[in-house]
Protein backbone atom coordinates (compact mmCIF):
# COMPACT_ATOMS: atom_id res chain seq x y z
CA UNK A 1 0.00 0.00 0.00
CA UNK A 2 1.31 3.44 -0.98
CA UNK A 3 0.66 6.45 1.25
CA UNK A 4 0.65 9.88 -0.43
CA UNK A 5 -0.40 13.42 0.38
CA UNK A 6 -3.20 15.43 -1.20
CA UNK A 7 -2.99 19.15 -2.02
CA UNK A 8 -4.35 19.97 1.43
CA UNK A 9 -1.58 17.93 3.06
CA UNK A 10 -3.91 15.14 4.11
CA UNK A 11 -2.40 11.66 3.99
CA UNK A 12 -4.34 9.14 1.91
CA UNK A 13 -3.62 5.54 1.02
CA UNK A 14 -3.57 4.17 -2.52
CA UNK A 15 -6.50 1.91 -1.67
CA UNK A 16 -8.62 4.99 -0.91
CA UNK A 17 -7.38 7.03 -3.88
CA UNK A 18 -7.32 4.15 -6.40
CA UNK A 19 -9.93 1.73 -5.11
CA UNK A 20 -9.63 -0.54 -8.16
CA UNK A 21 -5.98 -1.26 -7.29
CA UNK A 22 -6.97 -2.75 -3.96
CA UNK A 23 -8.15 -5.96 -5.59
CA UNK A 24 -6.32 -7.15 -8.67
CA UNK A 25 -8.10 -10.51 -8.92
CA UNK A 26 -9.94 -9.29 -12.03
CA UNK A 27 -6.58 -8.82 -13.76
CA UNK A 28 -5.44 -12.37 -13.05
CA UNK A 29 -8.83 -13.67 -14.18
CA UNK A 30 -8.45 -11.75 -17.44
CA UNK A 31 -5.00 -13.21 -17.96
CA UNK A 32 -6.36 -16.71 -17.39
CA UNK A 33 -9.11 -16.14 -19.96
CA UNK A 34 -6.58 -14.83 -22.47
CA UNK A 35 -4.32 -17.81 -21.85
CA UNK A 36 -7.17 -20.25 -22.36
CA UNK A 37 -8.29 -18.53 -25.55
CA UNK A 38 -4.73 -18.49 -26.85
CA UNK A 39 -4.38 -22.20 -26.10
CA UNK A 40 -7.61 -23.02 -27.93
CA UNK A 41 -6.52 -20.86 -30.87
CA UNK A 42 -3.18 -22.65 -31.15
CA UNK A 43 -4.82 -26.05 -30.75
CA UNK A 44 -7.35 -25.27 -33.51
CA UNK A 45 -4.96 -23.87 -36.08
CA UNK A 46 -2.28 -26.46 -35.41
CA UNK A 47 -4.65 -29.02 -36.95
CA UNK A 48 -4.86 -27.08 -40.23
CA UNK A 49 -2.21 -28.33 -42.66
CA UNK A 50 0.33 -25.95 -44.09
CA UNK A 51 -0.21 -25.05 -47.76
CA UNK A 52 3.21 -26.54 -48.46
CA UNK A 53 2.34 -29.90 -46.91
CA UNK A 54 0.24 -32.48 -48.74
CA UNK A 55 -2.75 -33.24 -46.46
CA UNK A 56 -3.61 -36.76 -45.48
CA UNK A 57 -6.08 -38.48 -47.85
CA UNK A 58 -9.60 -37.64 -46.75
CA UNK A 59 -13.06 -37.41 -48.17
CA UNK A 60 -12.16 -34.39 -50.31
CA UNK A 61 -8.99 -35.93 -51.75
CA UNK A 62 -10.74 -39.25 -52.40
CA UNK A 63 -13.52 -37.42 -54.24
CA UNK A 64 -11.05 -35.55 -56.44
CA UNK A 65 -9.04 -38.67 -57.23
CA UNK A 66 -12.01 -40.91 -58.03
CA UNK A 67 -14.13 -38.48 -60.06
CA UNK A 68 -13.59 -37.81 -63.76
CA UNK A 69 -11.97 -34.47 -64.42
CA UNK A 70 -14.20 -31.78 -65.89
CA UNK A 71 -13.37 -30.21 -69.25
CA UNK A 72 -12.41 -27.04 -67.38
CA UNK A 73 -9.83 -28.98 -65.34
CA UNK A 74 -8.38 -30.57 -68.48
CA UNK A 75 -8.13 -27.17 -70.18
CA UNK A 76 -6.19 -25.78 -67.20
CA UNK A 77 -3.90 -28.81 -67.21
CA UNK A 78 -3.16 -28.38 -70.93
CA UNK A 79 -2.50 -24.68 -70.38
CA UNK A 80 0.01 -25.51 -67.66
CA UNK A 81 1.73 -28.04 -69.93
CA UNK A 82 1.96 -25.98 -73.13
CA UNK A 83 2.20 -22.40 -71.84
CA UNK A 84 3.65 -22.59 -68.32
CA UNK A 85 6.12 -25.37 -69.05
CA UNK A 86 5.07 -27.71 -66.24
CA UNK A 87 5.83 -31.38 -66.79
CA UNK A 88 3.33 -34.23 -66.55
CA UNK A 89 4.35 -35.24 -63.04
CA UNK A 90 3.92 -31.73 -61.63
CA UNK A 91 0.49 -31.37 -63.21
CA UNK A 92 -0.56 -34.78 -61.91
CA UNK A 93 0.40 -33.76 -58.38
CA UNK A 94 -1.45 -30.44 -58.63
CA UNK A 95 -4.71 -32.06 -59.74
CA UNK A 96 -4.31 -35.28 -57.70
CA UNK A 97 -4.39 -37.42 -60.83
CA UNK A 98 -2.08 -40.13 -62.06
CA UNK A 99 0.67 -39.22 -64.48
CA UNK A 100 -0.82 -41.59 -67.06
CA UNK A 101 -4.14 -39.69 -66.88
CA UNK A 102 -2.40 -36.40 -67.65
CA UNK A 103 -0.50 -38.10 -70.48
CA UNK A 104 -3.81 -39.30 -71.93
CA UNK A 105 -5.16 -35.73 -71.85
CA UNK A 106 -2.12 -34.47 -73.74
CA UNK A 107 -2.15 -37.35 -76.25
CA UNK A 108 -5.87 -36.89 -76.95
CA UNK A 109 -5.36 -33.17 -77.52
CA UNK A 110 -2.42 -33.73 -79.88
CA UNK A 111 -4.27 -36.42 -81.86
CA UNK A 112 -7.70 -34.84 -82.17
CA UNK A 113 -7.21 -31.22 -81.17
CA UNK A 114 -9.91 -31.65 -78.52
CA UNK A 115 -9.96 -32.21 -74.82
CA UNK A 116 -13.35 -33.84 -74.18
CA UNK A 117 -13.73 -37.49 -73.27
CA UNK A 118 -15.18 -39.85 -75.83
CA UNK A 119 -18.93 -40.02 -75.81
CA UNK A 120 -20.40 -42.93 -73.91
CA UNK A 121 -21.98 -45.81 -75.81
CA UNK A 122 -25.43 -44.60 -74.79
CA UNK A 123 -24.81 -41.20 -76.39
CA UNK A 124 -23.33 -42.55 -79.61
CA UNK A 125 -26.72 -43.91 -80.66
CA UNK A 126 -28.14 -40.39 -80.98
CA UNK A 127 -27.58 -37.94 -83.79
CA UNK A 128 -26.13 -34.49 -83.35
CA UNK A 129 -29.55 -33.03 -84.10
CA UNK A 130 -31.15 -35.07 -81.30
CA UNK A 131 -28.48 -34.09 -78.77
CA UNK A 132 -28.81 -30.41 -79.67
CA UNK A 133 -32.59 -30.72 -79.34
CA UNK A 134 -32.19 -31.80 -75.71
CA UNK A 135 -29.78 -28.92 -75.06
CA UNK A 136 -32.21 -26.45 -76.64
CA UNK A 137 -35.05 -27.92 -74.58
CA UNK A 138 -33.18 -27.16 -71.34
CA UNK A 139 -32.11 -23.73 -72.54
CA UNK A 140 -35.78 -22.95 -73.05
CA UNK A 141 -36.98 -24.83 -69.93
CA UNK A 142 -34.12 -24.68 -67.39
CA UNK A 143 -36.35 -25.79 -64.50
CA UNK A 144 -37.56 -28.96 -66.26
CA UNK A 145 -36.98 -32.33 -64.60
CA UNK A 146 -35.08 -35.09 -66.37
CA UNK A 147 -38.21 -37.19 -66.82
CA UNK A 148 -39.96 -34.20 -68.44
CA UNK A 149 -37.12 -33.84 -70.94
CA UNK A 150 -37.19 -37.60 -71.51
CA UNK A 151 -40.95 -37.56 -72.22
CA UNK A 152 -40.69 -34.54 -74.55
CA UNK A 153 -37.81 -36.15 -76.46
CA UNK A 154 -39.63 -39.46 -76.88
CA UNK A 155 -42.73 -37.64 -78.15
CA UNK A 156 -40.63 -35.65 -80.61
CA UNK A 157 -38.45 -38.44 -82.03
CA UNK A 158 -40.51 -41.54 -81.21
CA UNK A 159 -37.59 -43.37 -79.62
CA UNK A 160 -36.51 -44.30 -76.11
CA UNK A 161 -33.89 -42.37 -74.16
CA UNK A 162 -32.62 -43.06 -70.65
CA UNK A 163 -32.60 -40.43 -67.92
CA UNK A 164 -28.86 -40.92 -67.48
CA UNK A 165 -28.34 -40.19 -71.19
CA UNK A 166 -30.33 -36.95 -70.93
CA UNK A 167 -28.18 -35.87 -67.99
CA UNK A 168 -24.97 -36.88 -69.76
CA UNK A 169 -25.85 -34.86 -72.87
CA UNK A 170 -26.75 -31.62 -71.07
CA UNK A 171 -23.79 -31.96 -68.70
CA UNK A 172 -21.39 -32.41 -71.62
CA UNK A 173 -22.68 -29.15 -73.10
CA UNK A 174 -21.98 -27.30 -69.83
CA UNK A 175 -25.56 -27.22 -68.55
CA UNK A 176 -24.90 -28.13 -64.93
CA UNK A 177 -27.57 -27.58 -62.29
CA UNK A 178 -25.85 -24.35 -61.22
CA UNK A 179 -25.95 -22.99 -64.77
CA UNK A 180 -29.59 -23.99 -65.20
CA UNK A 181 -30.46 -22.39 -61.87
CA UNK A 182 -28.84 -19.09 -62.85
CA UNK A 183 -30.59 -19.22 -66.24
CA UNK A 184 -33.95 -19.84 -64.56
CA UNK A 185 -33.39 -16.85 -62.26
CA UNK A 186 -32.49 -14.69 -65.26
CA UNK A 187 -35.63 -15.77 -67.12
CA UNK A 188 -37.80 -14.91 -64.13
CA UNK A 189 -36.13 -11.51 -63.89
CA UNK A 190 -36.71 -10.82 -67.59
CA UNK A 191 -40.36 -11.81 -67.22
CA UNK A 192 -40.76 -9.31 -64.39
CA UNK A 193 -39.12 -6.54 -66.42
CA UNK A 194 -41.31 -7.34 -69.42
CA UNK A 195 -44.41 -7.29 -67.23
CA UNK A 196 -43.43 -3.88 -65.81
CA UNK A 197 -42.78 -2.60 -69.32
CA UNK A 198 -46.22 -3.72 -70.44
CA UNK A 199 -47.85 -1.99 -67.47
CA UNK A 200 -45.94 1.20 -68.28
CA UNK A 201 -47.05 1.12 -71.91
CA UNK A 202 -50.68 0.65 -70.84
CA UNK A 203 -50.54 3.68 -68.56
Automatic annotation (TrEMBL):
Do you know which InterPro entries this protein is assigned to?
Answer: Homeodomain-like_sf
**What is the top-level taxon of the source organism?**
Eukaryota
Know the name of this protein? Answer: Uncharacterized protein
